[in-house]
Structure formats: structure tokens, C-alpha cells
Amino acid sequence: MRELTSYWQKQYDWRRIEAELNQFSHYLAKIDDHNIHFIHEHGKGPNPTPIIITHGWSGSFYEISKLIPLLTDPERYGGEPDDSFDVIIPSLPGFGFSDRNIKSGVNALSWTRIMG
Questions:
Q1: Range of the domain at 94
Q2: CATH number reported for the structural domain that contains residue 98 in this entry
Q3: Would you call 8 helix, strand, or coil by DSSP?
Q4: How many domains does the chain fold into?
Q5: How many other C-beta atoms are found inside a 10 Å radius of the C-beta of residue 80?
Q6: Quick check: is 2 in a domain?
Q7: pLDDT tens digit string along 18-59?
Q8: How far is residue 32's CA from residue 101's CA, in Å, rounded to a whole number?
């Protein structure tokens, strides 16, 4: 436990992570009285295809954020501009910057139905 707390206190570089997160466009959408956080990055190709990528429980959007530039700007990584995506990554309710569930009976299955 001491080793773990020492890492978080002395080595973990929160400002670096914060700068990485701030590269992206963050939004909030109100869905059924919940504020749902999401990232929306536009593809750089001529006709980007929309794609929604969700993180798993109990993770966060951060764990899949490295995919964003690969999908929005494939040409930069040796791909074709026609293969670009508009990337939307919502934060599950209660995780990241989304509100926690405030109604009883709300669970992962009901949010899957709401968010499509």
C-alpha cells in the first residue's frame, strides 16, 4: 500500500494526463435528467463516417482516447483520408464527467436502450 500511495503522490503526472484530455472537444448532453459527458472529434477526411465507441464498466473514456487520432486522421498514420471517422465517445453514467444514476431501476441495460 505504501508503494502504491507513494506512486500516486510522487510519480503520477496528473498535469500530463489533463493536457492529453484537454486536446479533445468535450460536451454534455441532457438525457432523461442526466448530464452525459461525451467527446466528439470530427474526422479530417472528405466524408467521415460517424462512430460511437463506449468504454466498459468500470472504466473511462480515457482508456480508449488513443484511438481518436487514428480514426479521425488515418492519413497521418499511413491510411486513406476516405477512411476517417467522426468519433463520439460517451462516458457511462456515474463515470468520468457524466452524472451518476439518480433514478431507481436505471442500469447498464436501460442506458443501452436510451443511448441507442
A1: 25-115
A2: 3.40.50.1820
A3: helix
A4: 1
A5: 9
A6: no
A7: 999 999 999 999 987 788 899 999 999 999 999 999 888 778
A8: 10
